[in-house]
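Usage

Read records sequentially. Each one opens with the input sequence:
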Amino acid sequence: MDVIKALIADVEDFPKPGILFRDITPVLENPEGLKTVIDALVERYQDKGITKFAGIESRGFIFASVLAYRMGLGMVLIRKPGKLPRETYSASYSLEYGEDTVEVHRDAMDSEDRIVVIDDLIATGGTAEAAVNLVTQCGAEVVEVAVVIELEALGGRARLGKVPVHALLTY
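and closes with the structure output:
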């Protein structure tokens, strides 16, 4: 994971003053960095009976789509409101610098599905908690939440209760 940590850029005062943003885009821009992330996650989930990856908008889409492709599985989009054309479930949440809502198609998953929710980062856990709620509203099982970065001091893992969190890097 050293290659990943070396690529992550710290951006001060983004998206507002006082926030230290851990930017994973250099990891995506670097072939070795992206390969390291995907290979680590494929190894973790290849024998877990996962049926789909649920990617949280927007950076979670990248990891979920590549994982789904590599493992021959489906990918579910968890999006901001008004972006999905069919009937949706929605969940609102607060995060470290505001409030938001995410949605998923009601028919994207069912009781036969074992889901890993994917995002680039977990901070306070609001987005991940909302995504987990959407998966369970669809009747599917959340196996784990997987992220590239966990900001441990912000306590997001605790917000998810019994849902396991797997982070490649912890700050």
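Summary fields computed downstream for this record:
- The two ends are 13 Å apart (CA to CA).
- The mean pLDDT is 96.
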